[in-house]
């Protein structure tokens, strides 16, 4: 796989993590849902019984779930699973059980309460919401760091730009050149061509090196 597994995992962590830790996309999260029972002096057996039934029901629908029955405070459990990036946390306490409900907390923020009989549909809905939020967040972050390439000045076999290229940004440009011309761009800028976008320009643009018109959209950025 040419090291793709490690690279893709690293890209996922870098793209979706936050100050609290990892945020794993539901589709690849080893644990999609963690159930945290909120135990009290009275009714702990009933809560654990209901939590175990939830685990069975979720597993029967191929949802990857973990019951956290450790003898520590709920707050510590929340922290542990947040840092590991589990997409969805279910909280089940005495008041929830009394109202025949449970609480869902998304790793991306926001809580919602659902009835126990809605378990499967509500969990799938919440995982979809986590997935949608992550997509929008990463898309917004990506777009904020894309810039159009500044105008280029060509002098023989060397090139320069009217504006200095900034690290931390990805530059998009039309390119219809050969390998030697691509190498010249990388040599003169100290940046690397990241490849051709799967979303080409809708209208043809002039290649900054050859002057040929093309739909090809490539990215240039500093790599480390």
SSE blueprint and pairings:
Layout: H1 4-16, E1 33-37, H2 44-60, E2 65-67, H3 74-84, E3 88-92, H4 94-98, E4 101-106, E5 111-115, H5 119-144, E6 146-148, E7 152-155, E8 158-161, E9 170-174, H6 179-189, E10 192-196, E11 205-206, E12 213-214, E13 217-221
Parallel strand pairs: 1-2, 1-3, 6-9
Antiparallel strand pairs: 3-4, 4-5, 7-8, 9-13, 10-13, 11-12
Task: Give the spatial strand order of the biggest sheet.
Answer: 2-1-3-4-5
Number of helices: 6
**CATH first level of the largest domain: which class?**
Alpha Beta
Element-level helix/strand string: HEHEHEHEEHEEEEHEEEE
Rg (CA only): 25 Å
Please count the beta strands (DSSP E, at least 2 residues each). Answer: 13
CATH topology group of the largest domain: Rossmann fold
Overall geometry comes to elongated
Reported for the largest beta sheet, the result is:
5 strands, mixed
Keywords:
224 residues, alpha/beta, Rossmann fold, five-stranded mixed beta sheet, four-stranded mixed beta sheet, 6 helices
């Amino acid at each position: 796989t040419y090291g793709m597994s490690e690279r893709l995992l690293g890209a996922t962590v870098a793209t979706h993590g936050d100050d609290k830790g990892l945020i794993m996309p539901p589709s690849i999260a080893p644990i999609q849902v963690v159930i945290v029972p909120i135990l009290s002096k009275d009714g702990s057996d009933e809560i654990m019984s209901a939590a175990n039934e939830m685990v069975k029901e979720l597993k029967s629908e191929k949802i990857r779930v973990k019951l956290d029955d450790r003898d520590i405070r709920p707050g510590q459990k929340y922290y542990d699973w947040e840092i590991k990036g589990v997409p969805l946390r279910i909280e089940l306490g005495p008041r929830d059980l009394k109202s025949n409900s449970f609480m869902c907390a998304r790793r991306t923020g926001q809580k919602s309460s659902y009835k126990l009989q809605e378990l499967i549909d509500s969990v799938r809905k919440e995982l979809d919401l986590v997935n949608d939020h992550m997509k929008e967040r990463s898309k917004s972050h990506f777009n904020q760091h894309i810039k159009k390439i500044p105008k280029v000045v060509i002098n023989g076999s060397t090139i320069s730009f009217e504006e200095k290229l900034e690290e931390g940004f990805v530059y998009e440009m039309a390119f219809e050149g050969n390998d030697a011309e691509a190498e010249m761009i990388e040599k003169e800028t100290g940046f690397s061509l990241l490849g051709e976008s799967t979303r080409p320009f809708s209208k043809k643009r002039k290649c900054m090196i050859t002057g040929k018109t093309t739909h090809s959209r490539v990215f240039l950025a500093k790599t480390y």
